[in-house]
């Protein structure tokens, strides 16, 4: 439902009634104006009722998963999907309102819905988690104390190589970024190993989102040397080079080049001498290949890979 533009409505209303304005600067509210204002207020009230109903239905249906997986009826799926869609639109239009989901019991509901075997339900749940959690520190802190993050990571085997895997990584990213506690939980649950595995997926979106989240952890020094060594950084470099912008696109190649650069600049001491030499050789070959293409669109990739050698 499309709601009124409230700032515009307030300005319009004050032009009719503002006591600080001279009488000649205000205009009396006509019957048409009154009907418009009443309609706008009714629209708000109806929207609030619909949101409240959506929250109630999500909480009701999610409780069916209290003991694990549960087969929903077609009607329950229809109601649930409609409610999740409306709530996500509400959070997108009013991001600050997403902070209320803890008070409304939705954090527990989203956690339970991750047990669903229905792909549509999972897709909608992952989407709303990504939407509501992104950069919302109050939610992230509370969510990190629940089973939501472990339940997300448990989906990695089921969603492997599926169309939903990019959504899973997006939900994981929104659930850990900007929350140190959540980052620690993610690392403890071997989430970084999962991201490394995703670098070998055929789905470009999966690979791109995995690289982006790995860059987050490495750029902010969230990962110790022992954990990085366990990931086998040399293996990651070999997986990412050559970057192949023609087939993979510029954005993915810039992200991949950044990951290669972070690994070599921050953790070259983990590499053996032979691994360092081979990595430099691969970089030289890639730089020569990109330069020979003569495409200025690749200049940023070349710059990033050139910096990768400066360790």
Automatic annotation (TrEMBL):
Keywords: Coiled coil. PANTHER family: HSP70-BINDING PROTEIN 1, PROTEIN FOLDING REGULATOR. It comes from Theileria orientalis. GO terms for cellular component: endoplasmic reticulum. One of its GO terms (molecular function) is adenyl-nucleotide exchange factor activity. InterPro entries: ARM-like, ARM-type_fold, Hsp70_NEF-Inhibitors. Residues 37-64 form a coiled coil. It comes from the Eukaryota. This is Nucleotide exchange factor SIL1.
